[in-house]
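Question (not urgent): is this output format expected?
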Amino acid sequence: MRKIYVLFLIVMLTCIGCQWQLNSSDESEIEVLVERYDLIESLYLTTGDYSALQQMSTDYPQQTRTLIEDVLKIGRVDDPEINVKFLDFYQDSTLQTLIAAAEQEYASMDDINQELSDAFNHLKELLPEMSIPTVYSQIGSLDQSIIVGNGLLGISLDKYLGSSYPLYLREDYGYTEHQRKVMTRQYIVPDCIGFYLLSLYPMPNRTLNQVERDTHVGKVQWVVNKVMKRTVFNTLYTRSVGHYMKSNPTVTVEQLLLNNNYTEIR
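Got this back:
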């Protein structure tokens, strides 16, 4: 009877230990959710709803400032007339079409949230000291795809409506087939990781030739491939970085990104 009791106790302690490990693992997981700034923006720009404008100003002041001053470049947020300018700017029929298309295409972003969480968790394993940005979505005016700064990472949904989206095909917009190929849902997370890494590990503050610039981008794209666990980018430079890392297994990802001796990676 005593042996049965001891065996039962061992099993219970083992189960408790496993449960603790599982809980600890769960707690260490980072959940990255896209804040839907675009929905509030859309409400104001399509209906003129003043409460939506107030929410943009109070809940998302930095996002609103970045959109108005840095993306659209239509003025300063402290301009007394800026709200009218902002609303008027988006009354253009093309931009109204973009707003409607983005709402429809991104009615749900659950898949993006999951992919972002997985990617940033993996990236955090490679770069433990890295901070996780606040990610949000917005609707621009076919300008930047990803905006990074001040701990924020913004996704312009109007740049990810699909390679065959009618506006992208118009000659007056001048998008090449290669450009349209990456203006799809599946490139949102790789672009987020890539642009965020470039903000953390920018090109050196010196004149670089084209090969050096391409090599620096190749390093970032190689890390993106590693984080995404699939080949998103396949170029001469990502392949060169792959050969370099295979030949130098002790080099960490951070050391790779900080290394500005590009001749080593050719």
